[in-house]
Amino acid sequence: MSGTVGVIVFPGTNCEHDAVEALERLGADARLVFHTETSLQGLDALVLPGGFAHGDYLRPGAIARFSPIMEAVSAFASDGGPVVGICNGFQVLCEAHLLPGALQKNRGLTFLCESAVLRVTSTRSVLTSGAELGQELVVPINHFSGSYTCDLETLRQLRDEDRIVLRYVENPNGSLDDIAGISNEAGNVVGLMPHPERASSPLLGSEDGLVLLSSLLSAAAVA
């Protein structure tokens, strides 16, 4: 599977090499792109990986949204390029208003590091197009501020436009409507709290994340 994927690195990002390794396992050319860059030329897809961008100061993603690279990320997304934010990357996309809503502290104020069962609830996004509707995937979570929230009008819009792409089978963090991942209206920008790159090998306990990452690379091939 081909495609050149840029993996955005902010100060405090710590999952970039996991993402690169998982993408390369699928045949992609994955490249680290530091947050001070202003061009994304030659890239077919983008991943904003997990970590603690800028130390999560103020709140997760709040400072990262002002990094120089984010103007290029916004333009890439506006042009229809596939963009996926994983965990902290999801938080950054919400702060940058590329996705609606916000991620708040988990129910019970507990840090969660465990496997979660996800159900694919939409296949119209770049992350889920290769999955089957209703398919269940075992993918790890690793977060403290992973409880998705939004106002009721936004939730109605997400439901009506088929933009809730993944839901937790057993909600671990108090996310509204069991939401684990959402997309923008066009389906080319997706954010999710679980880590598909950590479910990309039998040695990691699950290969279910490859279903999602393969979908992203398929979208990159036609972008």
How much strand?
25-35%
Tally of structural domains: 1
H/E element order? EHEEHEHEEEEHEEEH
Q: Which parts are unreliable, with pLDDT below 50 for 5 consecutive residues or more?
A: none
Approximately how much helix is present in the residues?
Answer: 10-25%
Number of helices: 5
Query: What composes the largest sheet?
Result: 9 strands, mixed
From the helix content, strand content and strand pairing, which structural class follows?
alpha/beta
> What is the CATH superfamily label?
Class I glutamine amidotransferase (GATase) domain
CATH level 1 class label: Alpha Beta
Shape: globular
The CATH architecture category equals: 3-Layer(aba) Sandwich
What Rg, in angstroms, do the CA atoms define? 15 Å
CATH fold category name: Rossmann fold
Query: How many individual β-strands?
Result: 11
- Taking all residues together, what is the mean pLDDT? 96
- In whole angstroms, the N-to-C terminal distance is 14 Å
Spatial order of strands in the largest sheet: 2-1-3-4-11-10-9-6-7
